[in-house]
Design brief:
Sulfite Reductase Hemoprotein, domain 2; globular; disordered C terminus; alpha+beta; 20 strands; Sulfite Reductase Hemoprotein, domain 1
Length: 563
């Protein structure tokens, strides 16, 4: 098989050796290879961005000093940049002109910050919970382990840009986390075995897949050795051929989890111990949280990940004056820890505590300004009230982790609805806290003009279920019905302007049982050509197509009633 393009470049020149040429790079005339190599040092551009660059900062465990945070604000202001928090608790600086790339890169890396290996085929920013070591659910503090892991790979000539594909790693010693970590390639989850706390290992997650239980228990002291063995294994045995099949998920798909474990064990040089009992529970975190020492933490909700220099300075100054820690969450919000009371002198600019969104139109792959759509089309007050987790991605790559949330969305373009050419695909029902399942598709496309009404209905039906949180609603109701039935139930509620709640079921319903429920509750229900899927398609066209504007739309001809 033929090596993919990136591997061909790596074979010619290792990224670490390319770094020696940094001073001579002409950022106005980059070749394809240059773009690949620069990602390993946190610099991103494409051939269609016309001299516009992005810099990404890695931020181990989400922890950053007030001084470092304020310095980022200085850079953003000096060069008139756009700053966003990433979904891995790092930062991205957008709108950098080619003349300034190298200068900004040097300034950031010389002032306690690092951009190394934040893009490209590397171990990406290693993440944990913002309440690591200090929250009331904290059992093992993992930040020292994260630092040790990052120091091992950072600027290591063997691994800089040389992995087969990127690797995302999460670790948490907390029994309840602000966000789930099962979307990571490698996740060390808090577990207990024979009264000892440690970690169960999960492998092969990604933005659209749940990491699998590897049936391995590690003590705190064993995590680093397993990490180094894992990295060596993926480096030596990961596929370097078809780029679309180089993630760890596909390595497991090809070799099997058992074989992968055997390969890791040859590097680990120690027998694996079977997994312990996973120690994870659901908890809805509030704006202020009391910590183990009696102090408080405050969640500053960003504008869906966007930050202005003035905000950063305000937060940093307050942290310095009150001896507070600053931590960045993978929920794209800022946390101030160690406060004496539940009081801060500023208000959050948005209700974004439970909403994760990708970079949107700041990224060349996204088709919409997702961050603006989130504010415009989501019933944010209800979402915030019920702490419903939302993931909003601008494309199928899923950087908003839309399959690992209660309700997920992908922004799309289409001509299926006449003049309405923008909308979102909707997913619901992930049981994400414990990694039981990803969400399932509810609608393939909802035009933006109908999105808020549709999202409001989804939330209203959840409210009427009586369940305390959306994951319980998914477990006991949503995930016992088929995708087509759920779509029809929501569509007929929209059509009849009702809010009839779904009934609790103890097991997966048959097609006949589902059709019976639809007939019982909606007088206007008809089954099109004995197909629920075709019925969904027909009703979507009826409700959402702009009449006379869609050249592909033909009214249904044959309808058969299921009676």
């Amino acid at each position: 098989m033929k090596l993919n393009k990136r591997e061909i470049y790596k074979a010619r020149l290792k990224p670490y050796d390319y770094f020696a040429e940094f001073e001579t790079i002409d950022f106005d005339s980059l070749g394809e290879g240059d773009r690949y190599y620069l990602q390993d040092f946190g610099i991103f551009t494409t051939d269609f961005l016309e001299g516009e660059f992005t810099l990404r900062l890695r931020n181990a465990g989400g922890q950053i000093s007030a001084k470092e945070f304020e310095y980022i604000a200085d850079i953003v202001e000096e060069y008139d940049l756009t700053l966003v928090i990433t979904a891995r608790a790092g930062f991205q600086l957008h709108d950098i002109e080619s003349d300034n790339v190298l200068e900004i890169w040097k300034k950031l890396n010389a002032n306690g910050l690092t951009t190394w290996q934040s893009f490209g085929d590397n171990i990406r920013n290693i993440v944990t919970d913002v309440y690591d070591g200090v929250g009331k659910f904290a059992h093992i503090e993992v930040y020292p382990l994260i630092q040790k892991m990052q120091n091992y790979i950072l600027k290591n000539p063997k691994y800089v840009g040389m992995l087969p594909r990127r690797v995302s790693i999460g670790i948490s010693g907390n029994s309840a986390n602000v966000n789930s970590f099962f979307a990571n390639d490698l996740y060390f989850a808090l577990a207990q075995k024979d009264t000892q706390y440690g970690f169960n290992v999960y492998l092969g997650g990604k933005n659209t897949e749940i990491a699998q239980d590897a049936d391995i228990f590690l003590t705190q002291e064993e995590v680093f050795d397993f990490f180094t063995a894992f990295v060596a294994t993926f480096y030596e045995h990961g596929s370097r051929f078809s780029r679309s099949k180089t993630r760890l998920f596909y390595m497991i798909e090809e070799l099997g989890l058992k074989k992968l474990k055997e390969l890791i064990q040859t590097q680990y040089h120690k027998a694996f111990v079977n997994a312990g009992e996973l120690v994870l529970e659901h908890f809805d975190f509030q704006e202020f949280e009391e910590l183990k020492d009696g102090s408080f933490a405050f969640c500053y909700q960003s504008d869906f990940g966007r930050l202005k220099p003035q905000e950063i300075r305000e937060v940093s100054d307050f942290a310095l004056q009150n001896s507070a820690q600053i931590r960045i969450g993978i929920d794209q919000n800022i946390y101030l820890l160690g406060l004496k009371n539940k009081k801060v002198p500023f208000a959050s600019p948005a209700l974004s505590a439970t909403v994760v969104s990708c970079a949107g139109n700041l990224c060349p792959y996204a088709v919409w300004s997702i961050k603006d759509e989130a504010a415009k089309y989501l019933p944010l007050e209800k979402i915030y009230e019920h702490r419903i987790k939302i993931g909003f991605s601008g494309c199928a790559k899923g950087c908003g982790r839309h399959r690992h949330t209660d309700i997920g969305l992908i922004g799309l373009k289409t001509n299926n609805f006449g003049d309405t050419d923008g909308g979102a695909r909707i997913f619901i029902g992930a049981e994400h806290d414990t990694g039981k399942s990803i969400s399932r598709q509810l609608f393939s496309m909802v035009p933006f003009v109908h999105l808020k009404t549709t999202m409001t209905l989804i939330v209203t039906l959840f409210e009427k279920s009586g369940y305390q949180n959306f994951q319980l609603y998914a477990e006991h109701i949503l995930n016992n019905y088929s995708e087509d039935f759920l779509a029809l139930w929501h569509l007929y509620n929209l059509k009849t302007e009702q809010t009839l709640p779904l009934l609790k079921q103890t097991q997966l319903q048959t097609k006949e049982e589902e059709l019976s429920l639809l007939l019982q509750h909606f007088d206007t229900f008809v089954l099109l050509e004995d197909s629920m899927k075709k019925s969904v398609s027909s009703l979507v066209k009826e409700l959402w197509t702009v009449e006379g504007k869609d050249p592909h739309y033909k009214p249904p001809i044959k309808r058969t009633s299921f009676r």
